[in-house]
Amino acid sequence: MLIYTHPLLYQVVNVQNLLSLHHIETIVRNEYAAGATGDLSANETWAELWLQDERDQAQAQQLIAQMDEQSREEWFCSQCGEKNSGSFEVCWQCQTERRL
Prior knowledge:
It is a single chain. With about 100 residues, this protein is α+β, with helices and mostly antiparallel strands. About 30% of the residues lie in helices and about 20% in strands. The protein has helices at about 10-20, 55-70; strands at about 1-5, 25-30, 45-50, 75, 85. The chain is globular, with a radius of gyration of 16 Å. About 15% of the residues are buried.
């Protein structure tokens, strides 16, 4: 079952790693299809993440939604006060880990 797709392979692999940390098995498809862009429409070449077990769908969707929400929220470093993008887990200024 298709659970996630994105034009950038690294983003799909990030989601795969997140799900793997929660013992949700997945497989990446279309990981080499980007080279066919032009012969195929762009969205047909996006990398796809497929669940191995459909029973994991609800938990996987919840984890992906949480990741998307966190990546939009900017945060301020507890060490130096620098403003960071929500996608950063470490302060770009002083390399202090994000505290939730």
